[in-house]
Write a structure and sequence with these properties.
heterodimer, A: about 240 residues, alpha+beta, eight-stranded antiparallel β-sheet, five-stranded antiparallel β-sheet, B: about 280 residues, 7 helices, globular, Proteasome_asu_N (chain B)
């Protein structure tokens, strides 16, 4: 039995024709994903933006999707590669359901499958340009993990991708604790997303928070955070700056 | 079963809709020494009789670990059994590697059955001549399956295959209803008692049988000779009582199979003509 690792067209390195098929740089990208474990499961937040370089081209992209019964997948990076991954997972979940035998893929299995896919693509010098966040609940156990485009994979109580790693995780390290209530979890995520909104130029003020518990997945409707721009420092930003440097 | 003009090729049907080569393969299973499996809700015990070619040689290995949570006991052409065990180990480890999760035994068994079916539909192949008792765990608990050379598989509470397995089956048929809630120790004891039935009078010693256990929270492992001997000692100490009971159970009393077993038509001629074992 071959496990369904997607293969691209042969040798991405040798052939001149196939060379243009390797992923060299991303085009339409999503920015950070922030996710935490809480009392009943996992919460995952992302904004709905798709940047085309420095242009904020798309403003209605869902970057968090439900996978099977037990998992939630969030992605930052190349949006088309994310869609490709969703297709692979769709096939995986379909085959799992076709067995119809009371066994089902849990978040751990999906996370490991994705790790294999990402690492194998990296080894062919043709990566899927994403950092993925996989969260889920099965049999009362919460699971939260991450896979990067080079196949680095790990689990933790809170994860973030891209700028989130630098801006959100320090907040989470200080303020996350086990058994957060849903309201506290959302507040914590909003705090992280607000910082990202202020400081990440590819973030937009339209976000979704997804929740996964034993019962299933809920993705919130898009909404905006309140922001405040009347800080004194913003009024005359160049005051105190002497010269061009 | 007698020779007939439709039995040369596995791909030739008989006029009565039978594939004789496949049925002959199932006969090979009956020639092997006995293998027995039983399960409770949380454990599976596999036991077999250690048959050696001669006094000089060691006995053949008939029980294999496939993974921490799956074991298999074989009867028939042990070479075929070894090859299939290697296939099962390969499937289990590939799944483990990709998903970091144990392969559900129910899915392994289907792969095995599909592999066996291929050999019943290719003119350049022959069916595997080995029956496999696969015991393992999945999300819904402990399971025991029997995989047949025909490509069929069945789930059992308890089963026995190989030569003189009818005696063991009769013993198991009387007790299987209680196996679901049996403790691990009782399950082991029942397995060894079932092995004793197949020995038909020969004294049961721990050197004559191999026993393996797996269960929820207990990875597959073999019981050592000491442990087996201890269990034997609990019932062999009172030979008169147990012998009396064994006499009652009787070998060769072909009871109608209530629970698990498809009818084993060992060596009967006319009786077989109308019933293809693999269709049950």
């Amino acid at each position: 039995m071959t496990f369904t690792i997607p293969i691209d067209n042969g040798d991405a390195l040798k052939n001149a024709e196939t060379d243009s098929q390797r992923t060299l740089y991303p085009y339409v990208t999503g920015t950070s994903i922030v996710a935490i474990k809480y009392k009943d499961g996992v919460l995952m937040a992302s904004d709905m933006g798709g940047s085309y370089g420095s242009t904020l081209r798309y403003k209605n992209i869902e970057r968090v999707k439900a996978i099977g019964k037990h998992s939630l997948l969030g992605a930052s990076g190349e949006i088309s590669d994310f869609q490709e991954i969703l297709r692979y997972l769709d096939e995986l979940v379909l085959n799992d359901n076709m067995w119809d035998d009371g066994n089902s893929l849990g978040p751990k299995e999906v996370h490991n499958y994705l790790t294999r896919v990402m690492y194998n693509r990296r080894n062919k010098f043709n990566p899927l340009w994403n950092t993925l966040v996989l969260g889920g609940v099965k049999n009362g156990q919460s699971y939260l993990g991450m896979v990067s485009m080079i196949g680095v994979s790990f689990e933790d109580n809170h994860v973030a991708t891209g700028f989130g790693n630098h801006l959100a995780r320090p907040i989470l390290r200080d303020e996350w604790h086990a058994d957060l209530s849903f309201e506290d979890g959302v507040k914590l995520l909003e705090k992280c997303m607000r910082v990202l909104l202020y400081r990440d130029r590819s973030a937009i003020n339209k976000l979704q928070i997804a929740k996964i518990t034993e019962e299933g997945v809920t993705v919130s409707q898009p909404y905006s955070l309140k922001t405040f721009w009347e800080f004194q420092a913003f009024h005359n930003p160049t005051a105190g700056a002497q010269g061009s440097w | 079963m007698f020779r007939n003009q439709y039995d040369t090729d596995v791909t030739t049907w008989s006029p009565t809709g039978r594939l004789f080569q496949v049925e002959y393969a199932m006969e090979a299973v009956k020639q092997g020494s006995a293998a027995i499996g039983l399960r409770s809700r949380s454990h599976v015990v596999l036991a077999c009789v250690n048959k050696a070619q001669s006094e000089l040689s060691s006995h053949q290995k008939k029980i294999f670990k496939v993974d921490d949570h799956i074991g298999v006991a074989i009867a028939g052409l042990t070479a075929d059994g070894r090859v299939l065990s290697r296939y099962m180990r390969s499937e289990a480890i590939n799944h483990s590697f990709t998903y970091e999760s144990p392969l559900p035994v129910g899915r392994l068994v289907v792969h095995l059955a599909d592999k066996a079916q291929v050999c019943t539909q290719r003119s350049w192949k022959r069916p595997y001549g080995v029956g496999l008792l696969v015991g393992g765990l999945d999300e819904s608990g402990a399971h025991l399956y029997y995989n047949c050379p025909s490509g069929n598989y069945f789930e059992y509470q308890a089963f026995a295959i190989g030569s003189r397995s009818q005696a063991a089956k009769t013993y198991l048929e009387r007790r299987f209803e209680s196996f679901g809630d049996s403790s691990r120790e009782d399950l082991i004891k029942d397995a060894i008692l079932a092995v004793r039935e197949t020995l038909q009078g020969e004294t049961l010693k721990s050197s004559l049988c191999t026993v393996s256990v797996l269960g929820v929270g207990e990875p597959f492992h073999f019981l050592d000779q000491e442990t087996i001997q201890k269990v034997i000692d609990t019932f062999e100490k009172v030979p008169e009582d147990e012998a009396g009971e064994a006499g009652e159970a009787g070998e060769g009393e072909a009871e109608a199979a209530a629970a698990a077993a498809p009818a084993e038509q060992g060596g009967g001629g006319a009786g077989d003509q109308d019933v293809a074992p693999m269709e049950m």
